[in-house]
Design brief:
Blueprint lengths: L1 H17 L10 E10 L2 H7 L2 E13 L5 E14 L2 E14 L3 E15 L1 H4 L1 E20 L3 E11 L10 E9 L1
Antiparallel strand pairs: 1-2, 1-8, 2-3, 3-4, 4-5, 5-6, 6-7, 7-8
Length: 175
């Protein structure tokens, strides 16, 4: 798994570095919505097979010397199953390549809430997590907006033995 992730990372970085066209996804505000699938089966039993993932980015500017964009980022995923629910909220900072095919990462402070029903109860944890993502601009819209598809690996703090980390596939719009 680590070897294939490294190969995908290097290939995406090489492709992105070879493309110098600026992405229209450098707009001030970016919003993404899509499903998030947790890796741990115990978390899926409480939070559902797939969860709603919503993320937002506020552009903080880039670098003149490197094709990078820095952002203030918000990340949310939540769902319910079998009388329980699992939700996480994160706020952090991230950076990504400023190319049509991009890769990036963010560091977050997360709050994770797990309601495991009346027997086990509700538990909350706060801690650091991260997102590593790769995406591609798929459509420019007249007026400056753009759409992109993004795949995100979400590493989230564990609460009461439940690990809500996993993969998210989002459709992003930059305004």
């Amino acid at each position: 798994m680590q070897k294939s992730t490294a190969i995908i990372f290097i290939a995406t970085l090489a492709l992105g570095a070879s493309t110098t066209v600026p992405v229209c996804a450098d707009a001030q505000l970016g919003l993404g919505v899509g499903p998030s699938i947790m890796f741990q089966s115990a978390a899926r039993q409480v939070g559902g097979t797939d969860q709603l993932n919503i993320n937002a980015t506020l552009d903080l500017g880039g670098s003149k010397h490197f094709p990078l964009r820095n952002s203030l980022m918000f990340d949310y995923a939540g769902g319910s199953a079998n009388g329980g629910s699992l939700n996480d909220y994160g706020l952090g900072f991230g950076t990504r390549l400023n190319t049509p095919v991009y890769i990036g990462a963010g560091a977050f402070l997360y709050s994770v809430n797990a309601n495991q029903g009346p027997v086990v109860g509700t538990h909350t944890a706060t801690g650091f997590g991260s997102n590593i993502f790769v995406g591609e601009k798929i459509l420019d819209v007249p007026g400056g907006a753009a759409f992109a598809a993004q795949l995100t690996y979400r590493q989230i703090p564990i609460v009461n033995g439940l690990n809500p980390g996993g993969l998210a596939l989002t459709l992003r719009v930059s305004l």
